[in-house]
Design a protein that fits this description.
427 residues, mainly alpha, 2 domains, 3-stranded parallel sheet, globular
């Protein structure tokens, strides 16, 4: 009965908010809170059951694995990612702690921990938004995912300190993961195109990445991400990601329902959540200011900041361990941040066009190496976006001796086109 009600409400509310022009995940969050209220006001038992919690966990692992399939680790070890991500986390924690001091009973340590928890952005939300707009491999998408990885590592360190736990000595075996790449690549090559391919993805994401990392005291989420990254350069990485797409999307419904089922909302918890939500504009603006200091264009900094304009599910984990009294207000704040972030991200490009003149005032004179102006040379025809349609158009016109150049925001795709003899620029 519970499963039937979850599915019915999730579908109904997801479809309803989609008709309003919002992402379905907003409806899933609403369904979670509605189920929570129903379970506490009626005789129906709709608690945060093991099945839904397990589906949520599987959905997160599959999401991070597919993100890893599109990730180049060299893009993470960049100044704007490491420096910008850590600088922002430090600044937002220090700036928000005094504002939170009164809310946590005048305890500076708890205020700082809560500030750090609110400094994390949602990996699931950002990845889902960027993926839906096909911007995961765009420059601002790569910066956003890189910063999220830095935040996740910081969260894992904080959780380890809070729990007093350290990884097993066997965790050092993680450094030998690159040695598995030839074997994994071979398995991917011989797995065909049907259910074996899906099973291989599940084996890598859930068993080796998830359970394997958890067994040695590391994060299962980190394991799924790294296993995906090991295969990011494989020619069939995209096919594997598409094969897992439906499973990942269905399991992620459980994740958003699970947030709503975290605890029974009260007026006091809602009031605290709304107060916490006031920090979201500060957090987003600080992301923008930090990123333009690292020579990003205003457009890239703005799009990256909006994709990171949410509170994180990792914050809930931190709160459960170190601030148990704050779990319900923080769950509400996370859910409300998703509701706010979804429409802003949907119209991100339109918002930038509206505010472009004001935002460009913050740009530095120097440009990031990946955002330098490019010359189109003597080309007469420009193709924006070198996907399937763009590539076919390029080849058609090239066969007719046209002077043509293509442009794409995916650096890996640009390199593949250049190897195939096409003139494609990264921009």
């Amino acid at each position: 009965m519970s499963e039937a009600l979850w599915i019915t409400l999730a579908f109904g509310l997801g479809l309803g908010v989609r008709k309003l022009g919002l992402p379905p995940l907003v409806g899933y969050l609403m369904a979670g809170f509605l189920l929570n209220i129903v379970s506490h006001t009626t005789s129906l038992t709709l608690e945060n059951g093991p099945l839904l919690e397990h589906l949520a966990h599987l959905g997160v692992l599959l999401m991070l694995f597919t993100v890893g399939l599109k990730l180049r680790l060299k893009n993470v070890l960049r100044p704007e990612v490491v420096g910008g991500g850590l600088l922002h986390l430090g600044l937002i924690s220090l700036l928000s702690a005094p504002l939170l001091f009164g809310l946590v009973g005048q305890d500076w340590q708890q205020a700082l921990v809560l500030g750090i928890a609110l400094g994390f952005s949602s990996t699931v939300m950002a990845a889902k938004v960027l993926e839906s707009k096909r911007e995961l491999r765009a420059f601002h998408g790569r910066v956003a995912i890189g910063i999220l990885i830095m935040q996740d590592l910081a969260a894992l360190a904080l959780l380890s300190l809070g729990a007093g736990q350290v990884p097993s000595i066997f965790a050092l075996a993680v450094f030998a993961l690159p040695l598995l790449r030839p074997l994994l690549s071979r398995l991917l090559a011989i797995s065909g195109h049907d259910e074996l391919l899906v099973l291989l993805g599940l084996l890598l994401a859930l068993v080796i990445g998830g359970e394997g990392f958890h067994a040695v005291g590391l994060s299962a989420e980190l394991g799924a991400l790294l296993l995906g990254a090991l295969l990011a350069n494989h020619s069939r990485a995209s096919e594997l990601g598409k094969a897992l797409w439906s499973l990942k999307e269905v399991f992620l419904v459980g994740f958003f329902l699970n947030i709503g089922l975290t605890g029974l909302p009260s007026w006091e918890a809602l009031g605290l959540a709304l107060l916490l939500l006031l920090l979201l504009p500060l957090k987003t603006a600080l992301f923008f200011l930090v990123l333009v200091r690292f020579k990003l264009r205003a457009r890239s900094a703005f799009l990256t900041s909006l994709s990171l304009a949410s509170f994180s599910e990792f914050g809930l984990i931190v709160a459960a361990l170190m601030l148990p009294d704050w779990i319900v207000p923080l769950a509400l704040a996370v859910a409300l941040s998703f509701v706010l972030a979804a429409p802003f991200n949907r119209f991100a490009h339109s918002l930038y066009e509206r505010w472009e003149s004001q935002l460009k005032r913050f740009e530095l004179d120097q440009r990031h190496p990946d955002e330098q102006p490019v010359s189109l040379g003597m080309a007469h025809i420009l193709i924006m976006g070198m996907g399937r349609v763009g590539t076919s158009t390029y080849d058609f016109l090239r066969d007719r001796q046209e002077s043509i150049v293509g442009v794409d925001a995916d650096a890996a795709k640009v390199e593949l086109h250049r190897q195939a003899g096409r003139r494609v620029l990264y921009a």
